[in-house]
UniProtKB/TrEMBL annotation:
Keywords from the UniProt entry: Aminotransferase, Pyridoxal phosphate, Transferase
Pfam families to which the protein is assigned, alphabetical: Aminotran_3
GO function terms (MF aspect): pyridoxal phosphate binding; transaminase activity
Protein's UniProt keywords contain Transferase: yes
Similarity section: Belongs to the class-III pyridoxal-phosphate-dependent aminotransferase family.
Domain of life: Bacteria
Official protein name in the record: Aminotransferase class III-fold pyridoxal phosphate-dependent enzyme
Lipoprotein is among the record's keywords: no
Entry-linked SUPFAM superfamilies: PLP-dependent transferases
Organism, scientific name: Sneathiella litorea
GO cellular component: cytosol
Amino acid sequence: MLTNDQLSQWDRENFFHPSTHLAQFARGEMDNRIVTGGSGVHIEDRDGNRLLDAFAGLYCVNVGYGRTEISDAIAKQAKELAYYHSYVGHGTEASITLSKMIIDRAPKNMSKVYYGLSGSDANETNIKLVWYYNNVLGRPEKKKIISRWRGYHGSGLMTGSLTGLELFHKKFDLPLTQVIHTDAPYYYRREDLSLSEEEFTRQCAENLDALIQKEGPDTVAAFIGEPVLGTGGLVPPPTGYWEAIQAVLKKYDILLIADEVVTGFGRLGTMFGSDHYGIEADIITSAKGLTSAYAPLSASIVSKKVWKVLEQGTDEFGAIGHGWTYSAHPICAAAGVANLKLIDSMGLVANAGEIGHYFKNAMTDALSGHPNVGDVRGEGLMLAVELVKDKDTRAFLDTSLLSGAKVATALLKRGVIARAMPQGDILGFAPPLCLTKGEADTIVGAMSEAVREVFDNA
């Protein structure tokens, strides 16, 4: 077996890590962690550490680590048929079965499933389908996409443009001109503190309406949003938000893409976030929880309304010109089938709701009195703790202090992994859906100690 030193050297010499300070990593100024195994909510590394992963990788390992039901299904499929494409009507038992399982679990207006490998490529697919849809309907000018500041929809050219976070635009010449952004539904950071949630919701809807009027309703094709903002700060929407937004979209015949890459398959305590908030999407994006990241797979779930127009388009213009080599890859599809069966048999959707409620209350009780904790928020097993300079004014901490990163480091010393979110001093928690009350207590205890270490000893 290779030594840790040899692996570490090769890592720094050869591996281009995503979302990483490349120069610091190459110079050895950043630690690298070589992960070797996992079980339940824990991972292990080559240094012998056992860590409670309170972010499920990147909010994706919904069933937890080490589930042999999925690894066995992957191995079985690899032995029988490791690969065949899904072009021109080809399928496998795994891909066909998974499609049926997804449609059975999705909101009732959904019709078909198209597969990719990541949430980013699924959203690229979705925008192409929206443009195709409007071309078939004779509306070639209806192409602009409205996203939201602080939204996250991927890091490609189009999807990075849809993302409303500066890090993913800076020095990449993004966003592209066909993407426009509207308000984040971020009630804690509202400018007017006198606004109730309902008033803030009305403001968001009115600002969206005004933006559509400014751009021209005949030029706006779709609105994309996460049911709960993820990478932008794990922000649940204010009361009535999705009802108000959908009313504006219907008024102007604008399609709605619900990006459920994070919220799909149980995280909010419902199978989809759309179920939780009464969202009637035209297209749903899913990925992460679809296989619990045991294999790379994404799905664009297309509504009956959109599918009817796609069929019409192929009758008029021939076969649809879109596809990936690995669409509906048999091994990934087999992982998806086994994963969805586990989500059902383990009762993980209900557990996410029950334990999520307990987790949020425990975190609130432990931290709400601290002068540097501005907000504890969440839905299901998506939870955030926002750190501030002053609780009363909500003043931001000096960014040069890297307070969020320091708290994450203090958590790591206590054996807990959380994510310091990329915009603001926000700690994100999105553990596997198999989390227990005892494990939630461990996270809360570690977080309480970490916050006090960073702020009370400063």
